C-alpha cells in the first residue's frame, strides 16, 4: 500500500518568506533561495531563520564549493557569481549559451555547476515553451559550455553518490532523465530514468539512498512524490499548497524539506506572498548531491 505523508510547517510567510527555492542541507541547516526577496537564507530545525546574503538580482541555481564559497546564478541576466564570505564576484557569463532564464542548478563534488535553461518567459504565459533547452556546465575557473541539448525545461538536478550519474527533472517532458558524467564534466548516454504521468511536471528533486527520487509536483494535490527508477510512484505527500522544490536533510538526512507556495506568479507573490518551508519525516535517507 502506498505511503501517504502529511507535512509540518516549519516556517511561513510571517517570517518574511516570499518564494523559497533550491533547498540545500549544509553545515547543519537548511539553506535556500528566497527568490523574490533576493536573498539566501538558512533555517534550522528549531525554525530559526537567518539571512546569509542579500543579492542585487533574482537568483536561481545555488550550491557550495568545497572551500565553503556560495555559487549562485542571476536568473534573468544568466550570470554566475561566487561569494567567499566577503564579496560577491562574477564567475561566469552564460548568456550566450542560454536563452531566457536560468532554472535550477547544482554544484558537484568537483566544484562544477550544472545549470538548466528554463526556455520560456514565465512573465508571459502566452508564449509557448521550447523543447530546445540546454544544461550548461560552469567550471571553477569560470569557463562554461553546453553539455546537454534538446531538453524540455530542465529543472531540478541531483548527482549520484559516486559522481558518475546526473539526473535532471524535465518539467515539460514529464520525466526524469539521466546522463553519465564524464571525467571532463561532459554528459553522455542520455536515457529516461523515470517516465511520469502527464499530470506530473517535476520541478525540484532529491535523491535517496535506494536510488529513488523525491520530486516536487507544483500542480498536483500530492505536491511531493517519491518515484523509483522506472517511474513507479511509491510515496506521496498531500499538501494544501503547491510544491516547488524538495531536499533530504537533517542530522541523518531523513527530513524531507518542502518549499511551498500557493502561486509562482511574480505579481501575486508581490501582493500576497504565501511561501512556506515544510518538513516531512521519511525512512530512507538522502544520498548524493546536493
Task: Please specify the SSE layout and strand pairing.
Elements: E1 3-5, E2 8-11, E3 20-26, E4 29-34, E5 39-43, E6 49-54, E7 59-64, E8 70-74, E9 79-83, E10 88-93, E11 102-107, E12 113-117, E13 133-138, E14 144-151, E15 154-159, E16 165-170, E17 175-181, E18 187-195, E19 205-207, E20 213-216, E21 222-227, E22 233-238, E23 242-249, E24 255-261, H1 266-271, E25 276-281
Parallel strand pairs: 1-22
Antiparallel strand pairs: 2-25, 3-4, 4-5, 5-6, 7-8, 8-9, 9-10, 11-12, 12-13, 13-14, 15-16, 16-17, 17-18, 19-20, 20-21, 21-22, 23-24, 24-25
Helix/strand structural class: mainly beta
The average pLDDT score comes to 93
Low-confidence stretches: none
Q: State the share of residues found in helices, binned by percent.
A: under 10%
Biggest sheet character: 5 strands, mixed
Total DSSP E strands = 25
Radius of gyration: 17 Å
Order of helices and strands: EEEEEEEEEEEEEEEEEEEEEEEEHE
Strand order of the largest sheet: 1-22-21-20-19
What is the overall silhouette? globular
How many alpha or pi helices? 1
Distance between the termini: 30 Å
Strand content: over 45%
